[in-house]
Amino acid sequence: MGKQLGGTWVFNEATGKNEYGIDVHSSMYKGLKTNLPKEIMGYPDFPIPEQESSYIPAEDMLTFFQQFAESYGILEHIRFSHYVVRVKPTIDEKGWEVIVRDCPNDQLLTLTFDYVLVCNGHYHTPNLPKYPGMSVFRGKQMHSHDYRSNEPSFKILYITGETVLVIGAGPSGMDMAYEISKKAIRVTLSHHLKDKPQTVFPSNVTLKPDVTRLTVTGVEYADGTSEDFSVICYSTGYKYTFPFLSVDCGITVEENYVQPLYKHCINIRYPTMAFIGLPFYVCAAQMMDLQARFCLKFFSGAKTLPTQEEMSADTAAEMEERWKRGLKKRQAHMMGPVEDRYYDDLAQTAEIDPIKPVIKKLHKISAMRYSEDLVNFRNDKFRLVDDETFVKVN
User: Name one GO molecular function term (predicted).
Assistant: First the structure.
């Protein structure tokens, strides 16, 4: 769909619809830096080039993807400004019919493929909560998807002099509260974390519990208190959505639970389709590389997939274990504490190279650093010594 590669890493000042009437994909805001060290954000066969910092600007990540694509001759296979309208099984159910819109020429094309990998990410369609009173609040309401900058030149949201409530204390919500606090009069971060973030916030940032309702001038909280705001920014996550998939594909999405999938990626009903990148709270680039190699081991015929019944039973057993741990449907693809188990399962099942231990170790100590020291964590510098060991340089 984009004019260049990079997907969510491409900064785009526009919000809403693009020039072709299609929803703007990017959620990138100006000045964004990675919240994981670059040492674990590259690919096993193509690490991010060495530079002074471990936490790097979004533009450097985009340059890395460009270098990767050029190195492996990928660019010549990409059709830019082509929007996928529909994917459905062919009549004989042995392949896939893909209808795409050639946007610059406004033409529909029908293409056929043997396999489909769905890699559209899950940071593009905002998930907005529903609170009583949302229609009566007189201030501005927006999702973090549309936040671009705290600078006055960005007309979408003029932060200077505003009083801002940020709802949601994940990595983006915390980062956004910090960025907005540099220009706003005051910022409140509403969250429902069991453990309060350990970090020290700027003096004009306060923490409050869940919002229960919006009022004409502000909000009421679960602790019975209330507060007035001129802007409410929802940093409440995104929906997993695949509007291009025909119902014939056999895939359903319910509260971000995508099913039926084998190992969170292969479509059990049509195992020539797979989804890359659904799990979250993971070491993303390394996991997606692992998932891609997992799928290709079966797609290439180098290894035979289990039967549909066996794949369904495997998935049912895993999901039952998840529900017993108290996870909700929206957490169906959450890894976090069990990410290593997932990586090892993929590698062992497909008999492919696993993620290196040093990557997993560094991810564990860096994944939650934003909640420990939001202001300074990006000053951390790391160096990989070997497949097992890393050192903190500063």
Answer: N,N-dimethylaniline monooxygenase activity
Domains within the chain, CATH numbers bracketed: 140-234 (3.50.50.60)
**What whole-number percentage of the chain has pLDDT above 70?**
97
Helix%, strand%, coil% for the chain, nearest 5: 25, 20, 50
Can you list the pairs that 300-308 forms with residues at least 24 positions away whose Cβ atoms lie under 8 Å? 303/350, 303/351, 305/262, 305/266, 305/271, 306/262, 308/268, 308/269, 308/271
Quick: pLDDT tens for 204-224. 999 999 999 999 999 999 999
Q: At what angle do helices 339-350 and 357-366 cross, to 10 degrees?
A: 160
C-alpha triplet 47, 51, 52: angle, nearest 5°: 140
Q: What secondary structure does DSSP assign to 28-76, as a single string?
A: --TT-B-SS-GGGTSBTTBPPPP-S-SS-BHHHHHHHHHHHHHHTT-GG
> 216-260: per-residue pLDDT in tens?
999 999 999 999 999 999 999 989 999 999 999 999 999 999 999
